[in-house]
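Reviewers of the previous submission asked for a worked example of the structure-prediction workflow described in the proposal, so we include one complete record here. The input consisted solely of the amino acid sequence. No template or homolog information was supplied to the procedure at any stage.
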Amino acid sequence: MKKQHDHLVQLGGLYDWLQTKLDAANQSLKDAIQLRDDYKKSVVDQYNTLPDIAGDTALSDYETNLKKTVTDTQSLTDVMAELRKMGLDDATYKEIISKGTNALPFAEQILAGGQAAVDELKGMDSQLQVEAATLGSNASTALYQAGVNAAQGIVDGLNSQITNVENQMTKIAQAMVTAMKKELKIKSPSEVFAEMGDFSGKGLAVGLNKSMPHIHKATKALGKNTIESMKEAIRTMNELLATHGDMNPTIKPVLDLSTVRKQATDVSDILASKLGVHSAYSKAMNASAGYEANLENFPGGISPESSPNMSFVQNNYSPKALSTAEIYRNTNRQIAKVKGALNPSAPQFDQSH
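From that input alone, the workflow returned the following structure tokens.
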């Protein structure tokens, strides 16, 4: 395993080195694109130049020069497009472009000469390129070919080894996977990892058991704090009720006598028409006899100081409040019971209605 691992590391380093070289080639491509764009910009800047303006330049002259520049640029564009279609070589094309609109007459002469003129220039330019290439090749070979051959050999060798490196890395990785499966007893699922999982579960159980005293202590403290908080809340509630609450409220009935006041006159008329003098006299005699009989029960006589004071208390143990009518009926019942106790011979009336 160690030997395979070391070999894999070495191949990985070689692969990284090859990747670095590839990055360098990509950078060269990027530089070539940048060179093309820079040339385009230089041509645009060259032909996008306005006429000069001097202190004595007249507007009409400036407009005339500007129109001529625009016209010459358009004409040169059209002429160069036609010459390119006819096969004008790159060197001549580039040379004409570099001279600006001043080369327009020369370009128009080539176009006027037709295909023959273009082919003749192309042939001569090609011949010049061949001769220049021969001279350049001879000179470069004599001076630099040995270094180029050496570098090319390295590049070719590296390119041929990339596939071999990848294949060897794949084989090593597969061998490592096989060795790991064998070592870990992986038979879907892995017996080693199953054993590790079993130990992990048992270890978790042991840890939980060890932490039980801490859990018990924390739970006990939580319950104690909860009970203390509830006691404090109940104690505070009792204090508030004792200070601000009335646990024995006094219920005082309120009677609405407005209707009685309004019809008091009618009651007087009814009583006057229904009760005669004899009736009133007999009732007075009965009241006097009852009073004399009550005096016999009090040898010392009845004085305001010796008169008993009576309190009528109504306790409502229902959560529902009593209405005014219910309080009134209950009060009448209590008064009737007291009258009956003081004078058993008096007629009893039903006060429930």
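The chain has a mean pLDDT of 76. We consider this example representative of the routine output the project will generate in years two and three.
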